[in-house]
Amino acid sequence: MRLLNRLMLLIPVTIALFAIVDGHASSDPSNKARYDRFRIYRVLLETEEQVQLMQQLENRSDSYTFMGHARHTNQNLTIMVAPQKIAEMSDLMERFHIRGSVLLHNIQDLIDKEDSTVMPSGNDPEHFDWQHYFHLDTIHKWLDLQVTKHSSILQSIPLQASYEGNLIKGVKLSKKSGNTAVFVECGIHAREWISPAVCTYLLNQLLTSTTSDVQDLAENFDWFFFPVVNPDGYKYTFEADRLWRKNRKPYGLCRGVDLNRNFESDWNGIGASSDPCAYDFAGGSAASESETQVLQKFLKENAQSSRIKTYFSMHSFSQLIMFPYGYTADKVQNYEDLQTIGERGSEAIRRTHGKEYVSGAMIETIYPSSGDSVDWAYSECDVPVAFTFELRGPPDSTKMFILPAEEIEPTGEETLAAYVAMLKAARELGYYESAETQKGEL
Ligand SMILES: [Zn+2]
Fold first, then answer.
1. Which of 2, 151, 195, 384 could make a disulfide contact with 186, Cβ separation 3.0–4.6 Å?
2. Which of the residues are catalytic?
3. Pick from 105, 134, 166: which residue ends a domain?
4. Is 116 a domain residue?
5. Per-residue pLDDT tens over the stretch 404-425
C-alpha cells in the first residue's frame, strides 16, 4: 500500500517531466547541438597497425565521429574530433606516425555562417529559390504550388509514412503516355542539404527550362521526384542537430536508422552496423522503418506499370557517380553499360563548371555498403539504370555536408547536364525502347 502511494505521488511528477522533455526537446533552440572547436581530420592509413588503431578508436569513443570506417591500408579517412580529444588525437598521430591534416578547426563557424542562408520556417513558397536552404514545410508547400501551377502535367504523391507523422511528398511529371520513367530520390540522409535543394532545382528546370536538351527530357520521360524521403531527420537538422543523418525512430538509448542501410538488399551485411547508436545503423530488421516500407511498396507497385527504368539517389559529398553493387565486388550484368553512362555523366559535369566527379561501381569508388536503395531498386525492381550521386564537395572537402548556399545553383546546373548526358547515353544503349519495340524484340 505504501509503495502504491509513493508510486501515485511519482506519476504526476513523471508525466510533467516527460511533458517538458518531449514537448520541447528538439524545438527549443537552446538545446541545439553545437560544434564549437570540433575539428575535421583527414588521415592516411599506411600500416595495418594504424588501421587497427583507428578501428579501436571508433569503437571506444563517441568523441570521434568517423565518416566511413577504417578497413585497410592505403585508405584516406575523415574523422570529426570533439575539442576535449584534440590533444589525444595529436598524440596518437605522432606516436603511431599517422600522416594527415586538419581540414577544419571549428565546425560551428561553418554552421553559423550557413545560418544566414537558411530561410525561416513558414516561408512563402512563392519566394522559393536556389540561393537559400529551406525547411521541410516550405519544400512541401513549394511542391504543392508547382502542382497547382502545372496541374495538367504534374501530380502530387503524398506517401503517408514517417515515424513522426511527416509526409514523404513526391510528384510525378508526365507530358505524354508511353514514356519510361526516372525516379529521383533525395534527402535520405538528413544532413546532406544539397540533395533536396538540387532535387527541387532539377524539377523546376524540367518545368520551366527553354533549353532543347532539358525540354527533351521533360517531354520524353516521366519523372518521379521525392525531394525529402527522410522528413523527420531533415527537420531535425534544422531544429536540433545540423549533422544528423538517420531517421528519428528511437531504439533504446539511441535514435535513428540509416534508411540507406535499411532496404531489403543484403540487409545488415558489409558496411552497415547493428548498433543503434552508430551512424550507419541498419535498423531492427530489413525494411523495419516506415519510410523504407512506403518507398519499397511504391516502387514495387510502380516499377513495371510506370516503366521506371532509371533510378537516381542523390547524396553528398565526395563527387561520385556510382552504380551497383555496394555490397559485393561481383560485377552487375550490365557493368560496361553503366560504366559508360556514368562516365558520360562525369564528362558533362566537368564541361559545366570544371568539377571532377569519379564514376564507377559503388564498392570500388566509395566504401562497401549494404541495404541501400539503389542496389535494391536494381535487384528487386529490375531498374537497369541505377545510380547514386555524391554531389559537391570533393572527398577532402573542408565543408563536408555544409555546402555554401551559393553553390546550390552551380551544383544543380552540372547535375542537370549529367542527367541529360546519362539519359542520352542510356537511350543510345537501348534501355528506353518503347514497350512495343521491346515486345517485338522478345
Ligand atoms: Zn548520403
1. 195
2. 390
3. 105
4. no
5. 999 999 999 999 999 999 999 9
